[in-house]
Amino acid sequence: MDKQTTPIGEAKAVERLVRFIAAALVFILLTRTPIDADLWWHLRAGQTMVEQGKILLTDIFSYTRFGVPWVNAFWASEILLSALYSLGGYFAITIFVALMGAVTFYILSRRLKGNPFINALVLILAAVTAAPIWGPRPQIISFFLVALLDNWLATKRPHWWLPILFAVWANLHGGWIWGFLLLLAQLAGNILSLITQTERRKELWLETRSLFLWSLLGALAIGLNPNGLGIWKLPFHQIDVSMQIQEWLSPDFHRVDFHPFLWMLFLLILLSPFAPKPPQWGQIIKILGFSYLTFVAQRNIAIAAIVAVPLLSDWTNAAIINFQTKERLKPRPSLSLPLKAIINTVLGVSLIAAALGNAFLKSQPQKVDENYPAAAVAWMKANQPEGPIFNSYNFGGYLIWTLPEYPVFIDGRADLYSNEIIQQWAEISSGTPKGLELLDTYQVNIIFLEPYQSLLDKLPPDEWEKMYSDPKITIYQRKH
Prior knowledge:
The chain is mainly alpha-helical. The chain contains 19 helices and 4 strands. Helix 1 runs antiparallel to helix 3, helix 5 runs parallel beside helix 7 (176-196) and helix 7 packs antiparallel against helix 8 (201-221). The chain is globular. It starts with 6 loop residues before the first helix and ends with a strand.
């Protein structure tokens, strides 16, 4: 008898099919028009490094921090993004972002036990939860590496690979700190298990000791990057300077797209009475820790969703088994293997075509341009007014990409600009007396700001002239 016709073989085939469908749906859910504010300076940095043949470690894109050391923890990711753009433009970047999502959640799906349909629903809920922060930035590589690390820890694999992982991670994105928080949560869970599971004490002690020692080597491996010791300071420095930036604010639960995070938490609370014994302390601490970080800063929501998937799946399956009745539906006659193959092929091809078509439509240049001040940039190119420019924070990266001949006042590299420049930008954009003085100090000649900024109503009319305005950007030029 063919193994595919046995109950076990059919169950495995169904599980693989459902896992594929879930991954395809995640791909579609996380397909994004590439409009992230930080994408543009990443692209410009990658392109510059390819052209110059060296890693950028000092700022060359602004006049407020020109020549200052820049801890560029993203250099390898920036080269990758630049290469993707060179190969396939916005479409290639869109595919990459969605594919990283599909692979990340597929890795999670490989470790889930129980009903494949329930597991697929949990995965999709987690993908919807991560969606508000999932975009064309190097941090999605960190999301993938968190899923990979958590999966490796759960499957009790050897720990010698940790230094290799963190050495690579430190050259891709500063999110390696998430990996160490994950390791700390796992170690804390192991310690709790040592206390509560006396029968496994020897096994748990050996595992905990090995994980701790290899984690220390992983911390040392972070230094294997061109930024030197500055890489260790980066995550903490960003926390210090970035609280005024949207992604570092707490989630606004008036926004519906943040509600799935609450759904995941509430489901875990409701399902906790059905949790299998003994408690999975490591996973529980991970969820509590990253949920806490999410309430502090919304940029952590994707990590919280990723680490919650295994526990939510286990507890949901346990609850269903608890309420399952003895009466079962009789199995329906199975389809023939050729017919199954045809149906599965048609379904697979249809999903892939839908995913690629959706990515193509969302990556059209006009879809990108409608989110940015493309017309204002065109005016700048046509008229070429003399700088320096005082620019919108939100569009600083876009100007680095579209107007490289104008060094910016500020962009999304909050760690580079520090509190000093961020505060100066706030003073100027608010039009305070100190801010107006700073315009003169920096000899600003062009103001490139959103129409709602207070500064535009406080500019002395005998010194400044409005040159251009649309719903996205207003441009003022200093009179001579």
